[in-house]
Amino acid sequence: MIRKRNLVFLGPPGAGKGTLSEVIIRDEKLVHISTGDIFRAEIGNGTALGKEAKAYMDAGKLVPDQLVVDMVAARLAKEDCAGGFILDGFPRTVAQAEMLEQIAEKTGRKLDCVVLFDAPYDLLIRRLTARLTCRKCKANFNKLFAKPKTEGVCDHCGGELYQRADDSLETAQNRLKVYEEQTAPLIKFYTDNGLLAKIDSSLPRDRAYEALLTVLS
Questions:
Q1: Is 118:198 a contact under the CB 8 Å cutoff?
Q2: Active site residues
Q3: Cα angle vertex 36, ends 35, 38, to 5°?
Q4: CA–CA separation, 197 vs 209, rounded Å?
Q5: What percent of the chain has pLDDT over 90?
Q6: Which of 7, 10, 59, 166 sits at a 20 to 30 Å CA gap from 23?
Q7: Cβ atoms of residues 10 and 87 within 8 Å
């Protein structure tokens, strides 16, 4: 049983946040929260926040930070988050992190730890260009470090695995550039706040998971 349970997973695309999230939410009964999932739920349920977000998205505009934070706050306030959660892909900027501090205090969901998934650039590129996606359930695998049990077949639903057109070298390089510009400053922010812990996510999955459990214990 881990001691630190209210978490943010931080790190560049391809660092393994999603892969280790799948394992730890199963073992530790944490709630995995991504802004994409929140958006889809709020819009699908026709909430006021969802309608407002959809209006921005339909107009091709970015959803404002305050609206994103309001949706995260609504999700954190739900009872299933009382036993612990992982915020994955949020916050993306220092401004969002500062707003998250305020809502975490109000909802009684104060962060225990921010885990930085650290891996070298060349490995991130190789991982990002080796991703496989299920046509049916959209689950992700990776030809390098998260292979399916049967080649070309999804472990979860038996659907066909394929490589998306946007999993190109150019797209991978651009995603990492955006991370460095917008999200990497959070490393200093959370270090200064005494919340940051780092794991070497270039390790094989089992060893990286052991490292994760160690920093959360």
A1: yes
A2: 17, 92, 131, 164, 175
A3: 60
A4: 14
A5: 64
A6: 166
A7: no
Instruction: Provide the terminal-to-terminal Cα distance of the chain, rounded to the nearest Å.
Output: 7
The pTM (predicted TM-score) of the whole model is 0.84
CA-based angle 89:154:87, to the nearest 5? 15
C-alpha to C-alpha distance for 78 and 37, rounded to whole angstroms: 15
* Token reading at 184: 């990497």
> How far is it, in rounded angstroms, from Cα 128 to Cα 99?
30
- Given a contact cutoff of 8 angstroms between Cβ atoms, the answer to whether 111 and 102 are in contact is no
99/87 Cα distance (integer angstroms): 14
3-state secondary structure the chain: CCCCCEEEEECCCCCCHHHHHHHHHHHHCCEEEEHHHHHHHHHHCCCHHHHHHHHHHHCCCCCCHHHHHHHHHHHHCCHHHCCCEEEECCCCCHHHHHHHHHHHHHCCCCCCEEEEEECCHHHHHHHHCCEEEECCCCCEEECCCECCCECCECCCCCCEEECCCCCCHHHHHHHHHHHHHHHCHHHHHHHHCCCEEEEECCCCHHHHHHHHHHHHC
Q: What is the pLDDT of residues 46-91, one digit of tens each?
A: 999 889 988 988 887 878 889 889 889 989 999 999 999 999 989 9
Q: State how far the Cα of 122 lies from the Cα of 94, in Å rounded to an integer.
A: 26
